[in-house]
Amino acid sequence: MPASGGYPAEVLSRFAAALLEAAGTPPDNANLVAEALVDADIEGLASHGLLQLPMYLERIERGSVDPTAKGEIVVDVGARLTLDAQNGLGHVTAERACEIAITRAAEYGVAIVAVRNAFHVGAAGRFARRIALAGKIGIVMANTRPMLPAPGGAEAVVGNNPLAIAVPTGGEPIVLDLAMSAGAMGKVRLAASKGEPIPEGWAQTAEGLPTRDAAEAIKGVLLPAAGAKGFGLAVMVDLLAGGLSGGGIGAKVQPLYGDLSRPYGSANLVMAIEIEGMRPLAEYEAAAAGFAERIRQSKTAPGTTPIRLPGDRAAEARKRFGGNCALAAETLRLLHTHAGRLGVAIPEALGG
């Protein structure tokens, strides 16, 4: 049974890392991925949290993910690089892309790292925020298998292709992180695992009919956020991430939960923009922080909640964090199953 308020995050992180190590992941890679997954759960982004770990472990077992890979630079022309992720764990190769982008932006003023043969990176905002905390503007995007129809269509032709932009403020960065669908597929899968309906306007069945059934949505198509605008942005993310990296575009990206023996084949684009040199960093941060505060203090409509900026919800969750985080019973059950397969002891705090 869970502890009051959830399970101890430190125990979850150690357990996740132990599972990954038992599956053949080097300790540094295992700890990085485990921390990222648990951080997502802490921030209330369960769709990008430990929910994904059973699939990661199965993909490692079936050979479509190489847990030892860290990526290889295959194109290097100063401010522009291409990283072949070699089907490594997505958090690992995205972290490396961020490190490269931060270093090169300090040298050249801007850096673009295109990543091909990539795996699921979780929340793109994590990596854009990482760049912003280094005092730079971070832009991170990734493509997925086709999930969205063109306006008026009933066939998935483009992914929900997340985009994140983060700017420094001298404190907590402002972090925009969105997928181009009305609702992220991870949230649809989370609803399906809980047997809950999804909001109206999120999806259509395979026959093109509106649905609130999460299972039918997974078999059908997601709808673009803001209609043609979201669809157009999704197309451009595919062409930027997949196109510049020489990686997969559209249907060349495989279903994340499809044939787990086939590499995912996603592509990422990581950008860092050096602020210093265009204007003093402290001056930019003060302007961003002041603008953010003005928005937060703006007049609210009757009956609405306090105004938030992009990234505020996750930042507030990190501040409230008391050591425990929630975990769906089905996710814990699957992790127990993998622990039995891999010979990993289940901690007492997690039902062992």
Give the CATH level 1 class of the largest domain: Alpha Beta
Structural class: alpha+beta
Low-pLDDT runs of 5+ residues are none
Number of strands: 14
- The level of helicity is 40-55%
Please state the overall shape, judged from the principal axes of the Cα atoms. Answer: globular
The N- to C-terminal Cα distance equals 10 Å
Domain tally: 3
Question: What can you tell me about this protein's structure?
Answer:
The protein is α+β, with helices and mostly antiparallel strands. The chain has 3 domains: 84 residues, Orthogonal Bundle (Hypothetical Oxidoreductase Yiak, Chain: A, domain 1); 129 residues, Malate/L-lactate/L-sulpholactate dehydrogenase, NADPH binding domain (Ribosomal Protein S8, Chain: A, domain 1); 42 residues, Hypothetical oxidoreductase yiak, domain 3 (Wheat Germ Agglutinin (Isolectin 2), domain 1). The protein is 40% helix and 17% strand. It contains 11 helices and 14 strands. The strands form 4 sheets. A 7-stranded mixed β-sheet has the order 2-3-4-13-5-8-9, with helices on both faces. It has a 3-stranded antiparallel β-sheet with strand order 11-10-12. A two-stranded antiparallel sheet has the order 1-14. Helix 1 packs antiparallel against helix 2 and helix 4 packs parallel to helix 5.
